Amino acid sequence: MRVGFIGLGTMGAAMARRLVDAGHEVAVHNRTREREAPLTAAGARAAAHPAAAARGASIVVVMVSDTPNVEQVVFGSDGVAEGIEDGALLVDMSTIAPEATRGFAERVAARGARWLDAPVSGGSEGAKNGTLSIMVGGEADDLERARPLLEVLGSTITHVGPTGSGQLAKAMNQVVIAGTYAAVAEGIVLGLKAGIDVDAALRALAGGAAGSWGLIHRGPNVVRNDYPLGFRVRLHRKDLGIALDAGRSLGVPLPVAALVEQWETGLIARGHGDEDVSAIARVVREQAGLDDPEA
Question: Among the options 128, 170, 193, 238, which is catalytic?
Fold first, then answer.
């Protein structure tokens, strides 16, 4: 399949590499052009701009950081919309605002192309291993066209409704992550302050009702107070902003998400925005007196 892939960040680069390794003919573009080099070395074609990546592709994947970036790479000068073929499918795997998604899909449809919103969960590990959970909004027939490609990237592919629904499902995901990581941090810090064998306690918790992906894979970060990148704090903060906007528009209070958003805003201001989102535990550790916030 001929694929255009725009956006080679931590997630996008790993996803594009999987498509190349699976034998797809992939044209790649990234704003920071040197990030294309590892992909071209693996067999991808470098495209001078998003329009060039889209030209001739049956599916174009966009994986960039936020709503304005999607609008720029799709509708800006030399954007995807200038090169996308009639009848081609644009699959936006970024996490952006649902309302904007619906508007973008209408603009692409006016040019004769189709749109799926297909944000993902699973972090950098999932992107590398092809085990992402992919939440898809759009037409079912379009999903079936994209399925062979999505199956290279994810182990769970779920159609959740019409255009924009994928983004709403991702907002749900980020709200749950916020609460989970906050609870994991509080529970572990309780054990650390008590002086018990926290590593043993984590094994016990993982086998019971408290067991979760976040506890198992990110709990050790909290114990070590070290947060190697899986998904950036600053990107999760952006996603929580989307979720909180949706909550306000729908009349749904999201107090835990709002609290975590405040924590993340403070962490970003202190230079921790590029750490893994489990770094919200820094706030709990500091409030408990384990660490000096000024250190």
Answer: 170
Strand pairing class (2-6; 25-29)? parallel
Predicted pLDDT of residue 252? 98
Closest CA to 248 of 261, 235, 236: 261
User: Could you state, in order of their start, the residue ranges of all structural domains in the chain?
Assistant: 2-161, 168-287
170 is catalytic: yes
Mean pLDDT by 10 residues, the chain (295 residues): 97 98 98 97 98 98 97 98 97 98 98 98 95 98 98 98 98 98 98 98 97 96 96 96 97 98 98 97 98 83
Q: Report H helices in 37-164.
A: 37-42, 50-54, 67-75, 80-83, 98-109, 123-129, 140-153
Query: Architecture of domain 168-287 in CATH?
Result: Orthogonal Bundle (1.10)
Q: At the top level of CATH, which class does the domain 2-161 belong to?
A: alpha beta
In whole angstroms, give the CA distance from residue 12 to residue 126. 11
The H or E element that residue 192 is part of is: helix 165-194
